[in-house]
Design a protein that fits this description.
The chain is an all-alpha fold. Helix 2 packs across helix 3. The N and C termini lie far apart (about 85 Å).
Length: about 100
């Protein structure tokens, strides 16, 4: 490599080029690692389910502290839905005998 700068030798330029390449490679590796971490985070279904469960649990606890009546209404509604689903499932099983 030659340069127009008379004070810089080929060895200086080559070392500078190698250090630039190594720095660029380190940056590319870090970027790849970051991308792979993001992909793993996004597609790790059990981890996503744990995170969502924690969020729902915290939200329900906060709702219970702020408005216990609303939490009781949600619980009653969920129990009603489960009861209806079980009722229809049982009645369908009895009809299909």
């Amino acid at each position: 490599m030659t340069t127009n700068n008379p004070g810089v030798t080929d060895a200086d330029t080559e070392k500078h080029g190698i250090s630039d390449l190594r720095a660029e490679a380190r940056h590319a590796r870090a970027e790849l690692a970051s991308t792979l971490d993001a992909i793993e985070y996004k597609f790790n279904v059990p981890k996503q389910l744990r995170i969502r469960r924690r969020r729902v649990t915290l939200a329900l606890r906060k709702l219970g502290e702020d408005s216990p009546a609303a939490l009781m209404g949600i619980a009653a509604g969920a129990a009603t839905i489960v009861g209806v689903v079980v009722w229809f499932g049982a009645s369908a099983a009895v009809k299909n005998r």
